[in-house]
Amino acid sequence: MAGSPEQRTNAFMEWLVSNGGVINSPIKLTDSETGSGRGVYAVGDIAEDEVLFTIPRSAVLCAENSDLKSKMISKDIPDIKVQSVFESSWMELIVVMIYEFLQGANSRWKPYFDILPNEFNSLMFWSKGELEELRGSTVLEKIGRESTDLGFCESLVPVLKDFPELFRCLPYMRGSTATLEPTLSDDEIITLAHRMGSTIMAYAFDLEKVSDEDPEGDDEGFVSDDEDEVMPKGMVPLADMLNADADRNNARLFQTESGLEMRSTKSIQKGEELFNDYGPLPRSDLLRRYGYITDNYAQFDVVEVAFHNIVDAAGGHLELGELEARVSSLHLTIGGPNHTLTSEKIQFLDGEGLYDSAYDLSHPSPSSSAFPDELLILVNLLLLPQIPRKLPKPGRAPQTIAVLRRILEARLKEYPTKLEDDEMLLRDGGLSLRRKMAIEVRLGEKRVLKEAWLEIEGDNARSEGNEHLMDVDLQGWGVKREAEDCDTGKGDMESWGEKRRKKSSDESQ
Ligand SMILES: C[S@@+](CC[C@H](N)C(=O)[O-])C[C@H]1O[C@@H](n2cnc3c(N)ncnc32)[C@H](O)[C@@H]1O
Q: Where in the chain is the domain with CATH 3.90.1410.10?
């Protein structure tokens, strides 16, 4: 990569303008002083709802704008193997980016590639030892390094190898062995695929098909994690240079038929950074996808509790078979006698918004509990001695609270360190960036567990008629709840489905 970071930034901005990009407001792309890489800053005051810059659709790096697809897919000889690559919006953009990157100076997007990262702190790139620091957090289950490698090996490598003339190694990629065989090895393909996949994860946008009558588009814009998402993905130059910091967002991308407009959502003072909104992500997910965290995302931290752990805590000895029998009977009561397959039972519970493979505990607030209603309903269902006619309410009888306590105790044990140990490690300092971020993530999750614990201690005090204890115990945690929220489980027979239907009909009025 030729030139200093500043020269590459300037070359990129010149390229963008020559490709139809229009800078409408006083902004500057520059290296941030806070360690967040490049960022966009206001160099003059900006009003709310100003168009900051516009990127034409033709400048977006995506399958539609690259000639790769037409070179690989011939109408006369349909190749299923090749077509399958283009059926997944993720894989499609990965292949297009590998191709355009390997074109070097022949690619339209060369100055753009010159400012994109080639190193990442996202969890896909952490060593086993580094990941060990996150033990206890379910984020480890979401990285999927092995399955991603397998996917690349099985569906990407063979396809790219079928087109050696399109995917040739760039001389500098191999240093002194540059003159050797230009065909990419399997490992080189996989390394490139990870690099492009991770860039897409942190930089790309879902491209909406919008007409000018509907310029609002999607709520978030950044790529969704959903594998089944069919919206094509694209790299939108400059729009992806905005950093993010939770509630500090002050700009947003709007997709129109003619182009992509970044607009201010608040007034911005000269010297301030422009922030996009990456969504209300817990820090574990922010780290996994974007490779950084800030304190401002701590409010979104969650702790996942697996379905089977709730079953364990509710029954102690409850076998999965027994649970299935209960769920099955429940299903028969409500759904009719023909639904016997497990998947259908799960689908039914899912339809009621009740079944999930895991439930999120979150920071409680004056208006919300640490425990989702779905989890409470599930616990109450598991505790009933007989199959109910209707789903139970999300009440908190003393037995419910006892189960919640067991859930929290078991979950806390999954972390090898204590909350106080983590606090001390952070206080002592001297940690590498990755270790520090991992400790902050696991500490944040333990704080959610602690707050959930304090919340049920408050419930317990209340159900025993010691309301005053709750006020004392929970002061400072902000988890004092309104009296009507404290349901002790009476009236278990009200249907959750009915309640939801009632709510939505209320809303529709
Ligand atoms: C969409 S890009 C933003 C542009 C990026 N800073 C660059 O130099 O290319 C997202 C990446 O920027 C970095 N980033 C974004 N917001 C950040 C923040 N508040 N603090 C630290 N790094 C941040 C992370 O590395 C993230 O993966």
A: 5-299
